[in-house]
Design brief:
Order of helices and strands: HHEHEEEHHHHHHHEEEE
Radius of gyration: 31 Å
Shape: elongated
Mean pLDDT: 78
Helix content: 40-55%
Structural class: alpha+beta
Strand content: 5-15%
Largest sheet: 4 strands, mixed
Length: about 400
Amino acid sequence: MAAYGLYTHIRANRRRSIALLIGLFVLVYVLVYAGALLAEAVSYQNAPLDYLLRAAAYDLVKAAPFATIGTVVWILIAYKFHQSMIDALTGGHEVTRKEQPRLYNLLENLCISRGITMPKLKIADDDALNAFATGLNEKQYSITVTRGLIEYLDDAEIEAVLGHELTHIRNGDVRMMVIAMVIAGVISFFGEMIFRLFFQTRFYGGGRSRGGDGERKGGAGIAIIIALVLIAVAWFLSIVIRFALSRRREFLADAGSVELTKNPDAMISALRKIEGRGELAAANSAVMEMCVDNPREGFADLFATHPSVEARVQALVKFAGGHDPGPLALGAPEYGQIEDQPPSGGPWDSGSETGGEPGPWGDRPQAADAPSSGKPFLPSEPPIDLGGGGQVGPWGPRRDG
């Protein structure tokens, strides 16, 4: 069935993602079969090809439970430690409302507006402009933003980026991406291990001969080629599936941000500011795949994990009615410190220039001649002059006696 609205697109995308995730898991067994075929070919070099293929299939059946348990254990380890590993790579640390009131309030307001459990808020000490969400359940979910993002984006733009990451959490994208990266990590690890074991056995261990009567033609060479091709294909497909999972979700996350903030222009201007400035030098490719934008691209965008900023902006212009200002050049940081508040000039302005006291909706302005000692505001003259000594009152001159 075709998808027509935002939520039907989300459901359709979720079904496709689950199918891709199952395909990624199947690649683990393809890798096990390839490893078994290599082992059989090296051990029985004179055996015919059909025998080696059957023997590898038999080995797969015996090894499948161990492969499944190993993958599950790997996922459990990632479940427990993936956040600490990501924080170690990016330098992310959790912040509270007291430490970062501006950022914390923006995220909290978005969560309250949709009844979402608020994720942990973290800041990465990096000058890049980027953000990402991680976690596998409500207790683990967190949103990390970089110092550069906070310094160069205004409140509306930061709110749009936070809405983008909250949408990833709401749609289950974060959990799906973490699991996909874990399974892809299993494939990469075991693929490399099989290659190493094969070449070590090939050049140092030799192999045993089976069917040495010379009546059967050896098929070990062809079996080795098939196994190596299977390993290469499994590795390549794991990358393609991982990237496909990431690319499909960015358009929906942009749309979800607009749904939360009702401000497509803020999402567009945020993307234009982030464009080409999101490289986290210390992060690996797995972390970059979860970011708002990933400037790392392969040849002809084949290995690009995100659609281009241009494509995402055009989608927001076409479907959300936004306005594209075009590529934006950045000067000095708009807000020198993370704690700074952007100037708004409205009734909720900070009032720091007037030295006012903080009230429930901002700082209370004081009169120009009022002392800044923190005492309650009192006018220098009464609002109504009661007169005296023949002075004129509000109803005319006062008559004495």
